[in-house]
Amino acid sequence: FCPLDETVKRLEKNLTIEEDEKDARLLRLSYRHPDRHFGAELLNTLLLSYEGYLDQMRLERAEKQLAYLE
User: Fold this and answer.
1) Burial class (CB in 10 A: 0-12, 13-18, 19+), 46
2) DSSP 8-state assignment for residue 26
3) Among 21, 36, 42, 70, which one is least packed by beta carbons within 10 Å?
4) pLDDT band for position 2 (cuts 50, 70, 90)
């Protein structure tokens, strides 16, 4: 296994995130890796993690709004 800091550097080097040219609400992600299946799995895992983060942020915002209304 690689130390965490090396893994992060490798991710930063090979991961590209850009806004879609036609729709700024969309992001284009790419990851360069010799094994395209690994790269696809990494991106899918990253997106699932990001979706979980967004869900948590929405839940926290809703809870705060409900608490304010009570």
Assistant:
1) middle
2) -
3) 70
4) confident
DSSP 1-69: ---HHHHHHHHHHHEEEEE-SS-TT-EEEEE--SSHHHHHHHHHHHHHHHHHHHHHHHHHHHHHHHHHH
Which residues neighbour 20 within 8 Å (Cβ) at sequence distance 6 or greater?
26, 27, 28
Q: What is the reported pLDDT for 70?
A: 84
Question: pTM for the full model?
Answer: 0.74
